[in-house]
Protein 1
Amino acid sequence: MPDTPSRPHPAVTADTLTAAGPRPHDRAPGHAHTSGHAHTSGHGHTPGHGHTPGEDLAPGGEHPPREGRRTRPPGPYRRLLARPGARAFTAGNLIARLPMGMFGVSAVMMIADARGSYALAGSVTATGLAVTALVAPWTARLVDRHGQARIALPATLLATLGGLALMLCVRGGAPDWTLFAAYAATATCPNVGGLSRARWNHLLKGDPEALHTANSFEQAVDELCFMLGPVLAAFLCTSLFPEAGTLVGGVLLLTGMAVFTAQRSTEPPPGRHTTCGPSPLRSPGMPPLLLVCLAMGVVFGAMEVVTIAFADAQGHRSAAGVVLGLQAAGSCAAGLLYGALRPAGPAARRHPWCIAAMTALMALPLLAATLTGSLPVLAGALLVAGMATAPTMITGMTLIQERTPEGRLNEGMTLAVTGLLAGIGAGSALGGWTAEHLSATAAYGVPVTAAALSLTIALATRR
């Protein structure tokens, strides 16, 4: 690693339904009423229409519920996506977001295959991450000031060209420094999840329950993309050619962003008059949240590297991706369930409890590795541990939205993502060092310690 129609209609229950009886003015044109009987085909309904001429149709051409038939009110996610324009921009951001989980793995595999050096590949991707941490808030500020369509699409095009330049430099045998320069250009890519969350915040303003569902949906999408992205990238790079992951990822990113930004009806209005105000960094309560995001990133980065090291020590390095995928699957499922529930109390009160649950569950992989040394048992522990991740991130993002100044939402959420990215980089380095100098089993203490640190920050700065 980033949409106000009318409020949903109240649910219709069976007690409010009545049978739709034939009425003269509802009869289809051209079907005469003779001797009290509608003209029907031999099967009892109008040919080609599938209903009797006198029968009322519900909106959309569907048959109304019969008397006595109970209807189930639509679920929260169905209501969310039923809002005008929601499905269109969601489809675009799904296509654009999937490459976010592809680019890192694709770059490493492509560079390592051509240059024979994982150290070089890791250095190039780490440099890109560092540049992204610097450039992303600036890009988000421009998006808030000038609008998503005017900034996000050109910035995505520049990032795609950077990926293409990297591919050509690797394939053409260019000097190593060109790889760093090319990959640094990809840092202009906007935070797609942040753009989507900003649209939901615009569409659902004044409806906190619906916004909670939207944040949960977005977090589940994040988990899904980071679960499927690496798998797709590895498949393309190994089954086709080493540059296939980068090439397909660039096409998906540019196509998805074009579809997303074309949905102008749900785009938040530019906030030129608000971007001259205080930075989100100076908003009350924001710095502690960003510190929590940094510590959370250490959890994620360390867990990934340590799990790969543990699987390698067990002689099953190729299974590491599947094991980590289970952690993401647990988080995705928990995020969807959390979004379907009505949250109790304000987000500021729920946040420390979510972090506490995450800290407790992060101890499970450490216990599984220490007591059993079994990779299947560790996989089960990661599946359970992942279930606390999405609710914690959802609640944290809700607080970010609440505490970000009006008109600077993309910048505020991008700062949170930047904190996560910085933490992931630090966690990867710390987890790798611990696994190499101590053991992979002992290194599972790093994510537990980082989660406990985030809980300490949240409790110490709670207002």
Note: The first strand starts at residue 33 and ends at 34.
Protein 2
Amino acid sequence: MAEPMWRPLALPDAPRMAALLAACEAADGAGAGGDADDVREALGAPGMDLAAGTTSAWYGDGLVAYATTRTREQADSVHQLTLDIAVRPGYRTAGMLRRLLEWSRATGARRHQDLYGEHPLELHTRTHHGQAWLAEALDTAGHRRERTYVGMKLDLAGEHQPVGPPELPSGTRIVPFDDRYDAMLLRARNEIFADNWGSVAMTARTWRHSVTGSRYFRPESSFLLLPERREEILCYLLCTELAGTSTDREVYLANAGTQPALHGRGLYRAVFTHTLARAKAQGYRCAVLDVDSTNPMAAGGFYERMGFRTFRTWTTHVLAGGPPA
């Protein structure tokens, strides 16, 4: 096979990237698809640099592979830089994967050095259980399998669906998300996840881009638990919609947190059951979530007791980065 032409990605490539992701989805079932607007949104995310941090392989006007590097807006003890790699079926050769991974390592290290050279670097890549081809290439390149996440689904018409009113902890109230809570919610999120693995404080720009400003965010299906007489977020659960406005609608339980000092008091259960009941009333067919397998709620069987069942897994692969060659 002749060598492809390599160049950085550009915004006009979004339709061809969406087509490549659709081909990968058909082969892998990875749920990594999306339309051209989704791709444009991803390419415009904080930490992306199309000219300096992406590459792609082309045969004529056909896109067959790409890789992107995304830096964080700040670093804690370690800068965790995200790699994303997609290769069209039929082009997943050892040579193609080796070139993409070598480029990713060198480019990630260079971008890291420019921003956070005083911190250690880790390159993070996530694979779906259907992407054995990429997981094995990462293994060969020395990336370690660091974390596993399970995707779980609940049929909202099923008999295990908790549709009754939640048992609210004394002195609390549940309210739907409203923009007036946005800044307060971001502060609460950063406090709650300050000590979590892989987490750094989110800036307002990243928060709006990735969470409450996303076109998939559903404020009417997202809920906050507050004290009865003051404005303070004790617990929250934010939802997005996977299936648009089709008749086969799925609500995705995307972001959740409880103030650490309040764990074990039933706050999350109250918000969780309320959210599911509202989603059912709003016409969603099922609820979906992804959770770290080491999360206490997952390890303790909370979601299974709520009727959720595992249907997919994700793995985070980590490589300690070095200086560019």
Note: The mean pLDDT is 91.
Protein 3
Amino acid sequence: MRRNVAMRPDFPWASYIGSGVGLIGIAWIVAYYFSDGALPVPSWEKWNLVAGIVLVSASIVAASRQK
């Protein structure tokens, strides 16, 4: 007897989105360090690091959607 197993849908664009978001996250962190906290958003102070890490984490999640 054969069961119908629900397969995870394939998102062919996931790797492109993951790569783009990851590069933006890395650029965010690099800009923060090279500008001594003056960029990308000066009022966020240390939260700029959190924003960069969230973007890099989101890229990993997006890339994991690819089969």
Note: The helical segments are 14-34, 47-63.
Protein 4
Amino acid sequence: MSAGDKIKAAADKLTGQVKETVGKVTDNDKLVAEGKADQAKGTVKGKVEDVKDVFKK
């Protein structure tokens, strides 16, 4: 997994966590949902890169 891809995946997760927290504090269900989606996207990106690493070996 390249460092850039790791950073992008972590950034998606962090952005999602922030959005979800802000959404909960402001009682904004749409923002909570966007946050959860961003976290899921980051997780999937990370898993895809892990699979790529397995095949590179």
Note: The helical segments are 3-25, 29-56.
